[in-house]
């Protein structure tokens, strides 16, 4: 059931399209939505190594190409789900480690070019809003989206309110400490974080550290790990071949994920957790049963519904569109209005 409190009129919505952007460290996804359905999708490599002006220009060029392809110029708004950290007030991404330029304005350049409403949020924050508005989970007022991917990210709705924080960077729970004695270093530079154990970009280092104290058989996966060459796809591939070291790593990753999720459950008391991100989506068969069993050990509360995210890898993109279709009240003050 659609809410009547949407900030955009239903009649107006029918004729116009929504442009949705999912800006990640490696991929830029742009979607055109009409009547809340994805009409077309473009996936390109995120432009890298450009100055700020050229970077924004590359994004604008791709949006224009997609709109021209369908002869569309009547835009209801542009929703942005982006890598963080954010400064929502300024409409900027600030000091992001994995994109060059590291700091760039996103909201106002798009607004000035397309003369339409621009709404932006962190990608996981947008994703949980996408589940709520377009994913069929509208009757659940407490929900969480978690991505297990290159990094670990979390988006949260409590009592129907999308949580943002001071600058749009709340619940960066990839950096929750799940092992305070570990020396395993996270991409952020600190130690013991959930993302250090589970994030795809830390796998080679994490598996090397595990291999150094492994006393089991010197298997193929072990030999690659000790050389720092055992990445996430290889771990899951070898685990499916019953390699004992790879199976141990999968179990370890599941345990770390359950520890992180139990922190999420204690913090937000959700009714449902949507799990996404390439590490999870590609390996749900191996991870979910183990995560569930460890959660029963760790979580003080009975675990909520835990499920695969509705739109697969496109949930942040659907989230971006949802930000336009129904702008959360607390985001309204950060919206570009032409
Ligand atoms: Zn960290």
**Can you identify the CATH superfamily of the largest domain?**
ATPase, nucleotide binding domain
Tell me the quaternary state: single chain
Strand content: 15-25%
Instruction: Please bin the fraction of helical residues.
Output: 25-40%
CATH architectural arrangement of the largest domain:
2-Layer Sandwich
How far apart lie the N and C ends? 30 Å
Rg from C-alpha positions?
20 Å
Would you mind describing this structure in some detail?
- With 338 residues, the protein is of the alpha/beta class.
- It has 2 domains: 10-133 and 314-334, Nucleotidyltransferase, domain 5 (2-Layer Sandwich), CATH 3.30.420.40; 143-309, ATPase, nucleotide binding domain (Nucleotidyltransferase, domain 5).
- The chain contains 12 helices and 13 strands.
- The chain has helices at 10-15, 52-69, 107-114, 123-133, 194-198, 203-212, 220-226, 232-240, 244-268, 278-281, 284-298, 315-325, and strands at residues 17-23, 27-34, 37-45, 75-82, 86-87, 92-93, 104-105, 118-122, 143-148, 152-158, 161-162, 272-276, 305-308.
- The strands form 3 sheets. It has a 5-stranded mixed β-sheet, with helices on both faces. Strands 11-10-9-12-13 form a 5-stranded mixed β-sheet, with helices on both faces. A 3-stranded antiparallel β-sheet has the order 5-6-7.
- Helix 4 (123-133) crosses helix 12 (315-325) and helix 9 crosses helix 11 (284-298).
- It starts with 9 loop residues before the first helix and ends in a 13-residue tail after the last helix.
- Mean pLDDT is 94; it is low at 1-9.
- It binds zinc ion.
- Residues 175, 186, 188, 190, 193, 195 line the site of zinc ion.
């Amino acid at each position: 059931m659609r809410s009547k409190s949407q900030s955009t009129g239903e009649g107006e919505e029918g004729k116009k399209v929504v442009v949705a952007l999912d800006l990640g460290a490696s991929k830029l996804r742009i979607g055109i939505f009409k009547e809340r359905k994805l009409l077309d999708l473009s996936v390109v490599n995120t432009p890298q190594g450009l100055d700020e002006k050229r970077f924004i220009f590359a994004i604008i060029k791709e949006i224009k190409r997609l709109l021209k392809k369908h002869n569309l110029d009547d835009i209801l708004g542009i929703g942005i789900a982006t890598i963080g950290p954010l400064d929502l007030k300024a409409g900027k991404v600030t000091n992001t480690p994995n994109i060059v330029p590291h700091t760039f304005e996103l909201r106002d350049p798009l607004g000035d070019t397309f003369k339409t409403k621009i709404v932006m949020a962190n990608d996981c924050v947008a994703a949980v809003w996408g589940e709520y508005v377009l994913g069929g989970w509208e009757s659940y007022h407490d929900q969480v989206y978690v991505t297990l991917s290159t990094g670990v990210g979390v988006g949260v709705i409590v009592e129907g309110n999308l949580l943002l924080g001071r600058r749009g960077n709340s619940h960066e729970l990839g950096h929750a400490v799940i092992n305070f004695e570990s020396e395993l270093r996270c991409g952020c530079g600190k130690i013991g974080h959930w993302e250090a154990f589970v994030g795809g970009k830390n796998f080679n280092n994490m598996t090397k550290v595990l291999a150094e104290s492994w006393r089991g058989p010197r298997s193929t996966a072990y030999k690659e790990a000790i050389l720092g060459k055992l990445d996430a796809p290889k771990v899951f591939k070898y685990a499916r071949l019953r390699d004992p070291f790879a199976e141990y790593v999968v179990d370890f990753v599941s345990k770390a994920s359950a520890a992180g999720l139990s922190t999420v459950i204690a913090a937000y008391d959700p009714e449902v957790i949507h799990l996404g991100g390439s590490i999870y989506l590609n390996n749900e068969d191996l991870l979910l049963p183990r995560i569930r069993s460890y959660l029963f050990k760790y979580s003080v509360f009975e675990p909520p519904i835990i499920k695969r995210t509705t739109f697969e890898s496109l949930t942040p993109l659907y989230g971006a569109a949802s930000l336009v279709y129904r702008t959360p009240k607390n985001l309204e003050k950060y919206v570009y209005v032409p």
